[in-house]
Amino acid sequence: MGRSTVQPANRAQVAILGLVEGGLGTGRAGISTIAAVLPLLFAFAVSLAVTLMVIRSAKTHGRFSLDHDLSGPQKFHSSAVPRVGGIGIVAGLACALPALWAMDPAAGRIAAGLLLCGLPAVGAGLVEDLTKRVSPRLRLLATALSAALTVWFLDAAITRTDIPGLDWLVGFGPGAALLTVFAVAGIANSVNIIDGFNGLASMCVVIMLASVAYVAFQVGDPVIGTLALAGIGAVLGFFVWNFPAGLIFLGDGGAYFLGFFVAELSILLLVRNPGVSPLFPLLVCVYPVFETLFSIYRRRFLRAVPPSMPDGIHLHSLIYRRVMRWAVGDKGAKALTRRNSMTSPYLWLLCMFSVIPATLFWDNSLLMAVFLALFGFTYVALYWRIVRFKAPRWMHRPVSRPMPLRERDNRST
Predict the structure, then answer these.
(1) What contacts 353, CB < 8 A, 6 or more positions away?
(2) Which residues of 278-305 are buried (b: 16+ CB within 10 A; e: fewer)?
(3) How far apart, in whole angstroms, are the C-alpha atoms of residue 366 and residue 279?
(4) Would you say 101 and 233 are in contact if contact means Cβ atoms under 8 Å apart?
(5) N- or C-end of the chain: fewer Cβ atoms within 10 A?
(6) How far is the C-alpha of 132 from the C-alpha of 9, rounded, in Å?
(7) Among 290, 248, 339, 286, residue whose Cα is nearest residue 50
(8) CA-to-CA distance for 33 and 25, rounded, in angstroms?
(9) Three-state SS for 32?
(10) Alpha-carbon gap, residue 37 to 296, rounded angstroms
């Protein structure tokens, strides 16, 4: 649990010198800061355009792609919406490949490898989005296959954890591969679980990737930093159409792929940079991971139902139902969409509650362990307060409730 030899003051000096020298500086792989942003712009533009085309052509493919289920326990939209947003995100990253390869072949090879290895994850999710016939177990197995492929072809395996017992396990090749597959599949599934409201999962992924990019540039690894920026661009191209209007959803294909992408970039950052704490990926992704683990505990031990059974009492669902009271009384589509969208910022803040410490103390495992415990305590305390209708005052927006429709009509006459 030691610290790297680079002190915070020296890191700041290195960052400033990097911005001054050579036209905003270059990293160890020779990628300038300006050039590193180009894949982000390419990915954003392509994702933006492809996602728009998917939305505009919904009448053509709507029979398969629209989410018509408006009454499920985790359904909070007011009309049928395409749930194949992952297509635009993957297309954006794929079209950023030439720019990545031109700037640094290493970045291009890793990006191509991640996209190819991620095909089982995104493919199984996309088939579920179109047919509604792929079980959660098969989707999880497909994501595990994607993780196993990255271990084999990219050497993206967790070989250190700073956790007694686990370090011994990952000291063996099979143990490292097994833990990696389990972790990647778990994170991908957890991102899918929090994908319940407009902009929730996608912005959380942007926040996580921003942290990965920052730390990658701090340790002089512009390859991983540039890949993270490209991922941010691809997700933001989708986000424009998803938040706040909810014109398209990530779907299982998009959610599983984004979870896979974040997890793999975090692991590659560890593999390539020994100075980064092995607890960094866990603290960055702890919000969706803890949400999943707490849901399993809640269903299995408190409600005595199968852990895979969906319900409507995730933390984000409770915030929607018990904190967004200003939307009660108006059942119109616009009010429901607004209520849906304004739920997400609360969870973005919760996500940042772990990501910010991870970004600041990326090389200190002891501090990260403290913040992991603090996050768990905060999550549970917040959940139990909301479930008992005692949400903190700061969570109640200082706005008046929309006037009921009948009252509006009476006043207008």
Answers:
(1) 287, 375, 378
(2) bbbbbbbbbbbbbbbebbeebbeeeeee
(3) 9
(4) no
(5) C
(6) 53
(7) 248
(8) 6
(9) strand
(10) 39
Cα separation, 42 vs 272, whole angstroms: 26
Residue 96 backbone dihedrals phi, psi, to 5 degrees: -85, -10
Are 287 and 354 in contact by the 8 Å Cβ rule? The answer is yes
| Buried-exposed string 371-390: b where 16+ CB fall within 10 A, e elsewhere | bbeebeeebeebbeebeeee
Angstrom distance (rounded) from CA 40 to CA 391: 38
Tell me which residue of 154, 185, 158, 162 sits closest to 173, measured CA to CA. 158
CB 201 within 8 A of CB 191: yes
The pLDDT profile of the chain, 413 residues, written as one tens digit per residue, is: 444 444 444 544 444 334 333 333 444 444 666 777 899 999 999 999 999 999 999 888 777 777 655 554 444 445 678 989 999 999 999 999 998 988 888 889 999 999 999 999 999 999 999 998 899 999 999 999 999 999 999 999 999 999 988 999 999 999 999 999 999 999 999 999 999 899 999 999 999 999 999 999 999 999 999 999 999 999 999 999 999 888 999 999 999 999 999 999 999 999 999 999 999 999 999 999 999 999 999 888 877 777 777 777 888 888 887 777 554 445 666 767 778 888 999 999 999 999 999 999 999 999 999 999 999 999 999 999 998 888 888 777 544 444 444 444 444 43
Burial of 11 (0-12, 13-18, 19+ CB in 10 A): middle
What is the number of other CB atoms lying within 10 angstroms of the CB of residue 154?
Answer: 18
Comparing CA positions, the residue from 168, 178, 110 lying closest to residue 147 is: 178
Q: Could you tell me the two tokens for 160?
A: 């250190």
Instruction: Please confirm whether the linkage preceding 357 is cis (ω < 30° from 0).
Output: no
| pTM score, whole prediction | 0.86
- DSSP class of 301: I
Whether the Cβ atoms of residue 143 and residue 189 lie closer than 8 Å to each other:
yes
Whole-number Å distance between alpha carbons of 397 and 394: 7
